[in-house]
Write a structure and sequence with these properties.
By secondary structure, the chain is mainly α. The chain contains 3 helices and no strands. It has a domain of 46 residues. It is elongated.
């Protein structure tokens, strides 16, 4: 009596051309699937829904503010910064404007 038994596997036929196991991959992100998911995703961005998860609410508010500031900045004149000038090496750091201690 043998402890190891041999098992035979039945012969398999090749997969049909359109099946997912035939080697070609099909994308799960189709246009139809995205259109069906869009209303659900937009409902989840409702602040009343986000209120239940304060971390995500803060992220959402920050994203909205950042987007609004990014869009409005060119129309408001951009940031008010001076051109960068190198600090003189020979003078003390506190004497030149904008040159702080490093």
């Amino acid at each position: 009596m043998s402890l190891l038994t041999s098992s035979t596997t039945p012969p398999t036929s090749p997969a049909p051309a359109g099946s997912p196991t035939s080697g070609s991959r099909r994308s799960a992100l189709t246009g139809r699937a995205l259109l069906e998911a869009l209303p659900v995703a937009l409902r989840k961005l409702d602040p009343r829904v986000m209120w239940r998860n304060p971390v995500m609410l803060v992220v959402e508010v920050g994203a909205v503010l950042t987007t609004l500031l990014t869009i409005a900045e060119p129309f408001l004149g951009g940031p008010r910064t001076r051109a960068a000038r190198p600090c003189p090496v020979s003078s003390p750091a506190s004497s030149a404007p904008g040159c702080g201690s490093r």
